[in-house]
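During the no-cost extension, the postdoctoral fellow (Dr. R.K.) reprocessed legacy sequence entries with the updated structure-token encoder. One reprocessed record is reproduced below for audit purposes.
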Amino acid sequence: MMVKPQIYKWLVLALFVICSVMGVVTSDASNHKYKNGDVVPLYANKVGPFQNPSETYRYFDLPFCLPGDLKEKKEALGEVLNGDRLVSAPYKLDFLVDKDSEFICTKKLTKQEVNKFRKAISKDYYFQMYFDDLPLWGFIGKYEKTELNELKYYLFKHLQFEVLYNKDRVIEVNVRTDPSALVDVTEDKEVNVDFMYTVRWKETNIPFDKRMEKYSQNSSLPHHLEIHWFSIINSCVTVLLLTGFLATILMRVLKNDFVKYAHDEETAEDQEETGWKYIHGDVFRYPKFKSLFAAALGSGTQLFALTIFIFILALVGVFYPYNRGALFTALVVIYALTSGIAGYTASSFYCQLEGANWVRNLLLTGSLFCGPLFLTFCFLNTVAIAYSATAALPFGTIVVIALIWALVTSPLLVLGGIAGKNSKAEFQAPCRTTKYPREIPPLPWYRGSLPQMAMAGFLPFSAIYIELYYIFASVWGHRIYTIYSILFIVFIILVIVTAFITIALTYFQLAAEDHEWWWRSFVCGGSTGLFIYGYCLYYYYGRSDMTGFMQTSFFFGYMACICYGFFLMLGMIGFRASLFFVRHIYRSIKCE
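Re-encoded structure tokens follow.
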């Protein structure tokens, strides 16, 4: 019995070793302290259209001046997944050394290079750099209309850096462009460009441990906080109304049902039963496609555990602004480590449903979420390769992910499955199931699956839709989201509302003598994921300026995977809540 924990420990250790070797677990050797004249690291990251956050390219894909010692920074797995490709920049910023119009190089731009710059300026290309791990951005140029209504394109050739320091540490960095130092790149002709930069150092009293607060203040501004708290109040009102509905209506109806059924048992034993008691011999009949059902429960449970762990890391401050790739690293590592939860849950429940082929069920569990995600990734990575974008993962990174899946995810999934199979838990059914199922009476159209899913998904979605905008603006834009405590409260409200509305719809389904509630409760609980995907359409066409095939593919492709994950997770919550409710009410009556 002690073998499995030992194997688990070895697998966790193996994951840590893999991550350490490949850069997933990183430690910054620099203490960010400098002496006068020391070189402070400045890395150029990427360029791309401002309105398309996924469509980014390497900085030197545009014909800027190359530094004499061009070096690529070794990056962690999460940074690569985030599309970061850091290389040494041509600008040299020495600690406390001011520079005035420092010359970098004279670049003779060919017609093709001029055309490349002009196209980039027309698409509002921005650049991103990191100075002592602090991000800085700027536009590469501008365009404006002349009096003759013609567009003129100008390239910025002079960058002005302003650095704030406190004793021996860098606190803040800003970059501006010199509006008087412009190069006209409107026409296709060779142009000589003198690239220059200026550096100014200024002292500040801001302590080093608060230097990242500048980037998180935007989401904490009073008017933004008011909107967030309005979202919380709106969600709480929804929960209170729903709870009140269940407490006053549903419980009163149940109480009347219990009294009625108890009276029927005392007065007329041969009286025909009606309502949800009438189907007590069918309500615990195992669902169709039970292997798929158990796999969906296992995947949903794993995704729920993943979400909880991510929230814990966020609340303790791991995902501070511009902690490059931390979220992606955490997602990959935690998903790998929680695969045992999926295997155990799916295999245990499948065996409770008297399933025989638990190996096939385990394979289905492992591929139910990863399969669509892998196919989506293959397509989108191919698109990124065709565009030569930084979103295209290098072959080495793909090998690392494959190794994590092969050496950690799959073994833990199998171990969890074996533990679930050997748990020998029995399905707890208060009533015996009859040999032959009762016929379900004809029901009105609004009791069908699709209308019920629409009803079930609308209330949970209404509790989170305000917060969704800020999340989308952060993930698919340039806003910074740091109010994880409010987001966690909204998530808890989402879980509660999903559970309550699914219980209510399950009761009305059983009261209509429809005993096929297993799959219905799952799809009704998960229907919020479909509403979120519907919101994606609204956000893309109504609230964003994203354009182009690559950005459109990335947005709808990865959002489809995220919404599918929400469907599985909330579906699991809906079913678990409904199962608890159904067991409770049938345990409270006398079933023959």
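The chain is about 55% helix and 15% strand. The two ends are 41 Å apart (CA to CA). The remaining legacy entries will be reprocessed before the final report is submitted.
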